[in-house]
Amino acid sequence: MAKDKPLPIVILISGSGSNLQSIIDSIAGNTLNAEICAVISNKANAFGIERAQKANIPIEVIEHSQYDGRECFDTELTRRIEKYQPELIVLAGFMRILSDDFVTHFYGKMINIHPSLLPKYRGLHTHQRVLEAGDSEHGLSIHYVSAKLDGGPIILQKKVPVLENDTESSLAERVLVQEHIAYPQVIQWFSEKRLQLINNQVILSQ
Ligand code: GRF
Questions:
Q1: Which tens digit of pLDDT belongs to each residue from 129-143?
Q2: Lowest CB count within 10 Å: 16, 56, 74, 113, which one?
């Protein structure tokens, strides 16, 4: 049977891009039927740019310091994203707060991965906060992006245990291993058109 058309996606990054790498690898390994039309970074020195270059993916850098305020940056970001006509926008370590207009414009078509079991620990330094709180479990959440920071409808969560001698970095590493499995999986659900967002409720069909 002929394979369906790969899902066109654009990935937004600011840093290391290990999640980007897991998506690149899943496509190469045929477990994810998607095409990365472009990687967009708001940082010229993000390591993820090198990963994209190696995989021959078009790269766009939009340095926010060059723009006069959030709206101007978001207008340019919208223009660059739309150039590629993606069906899904994947935030993978993109460290920018997006304006309400931007988020509303792409609502239902933009997802994020966050290193905590939302609604716990929205925002930054999640691993440190989990250790400080003495939690016995931690994890990740993949969610639709909504106007509320890290507050959009949740698509998938994965738990990891917190171990006795964990440091911030050992815990972050354990969560990342799961992130790299979960994110390509969720994107594949989009590719298979199995996800629906109805009245802000996520529905996954079999
Ligand atoms: C990940 O922990 C992700 O959950 C968070 O930012 C980190 C990005 O890591 N949003 P990488 O750039 O994909 O390596």
A1: 999 999 999 999 999
A2: 56
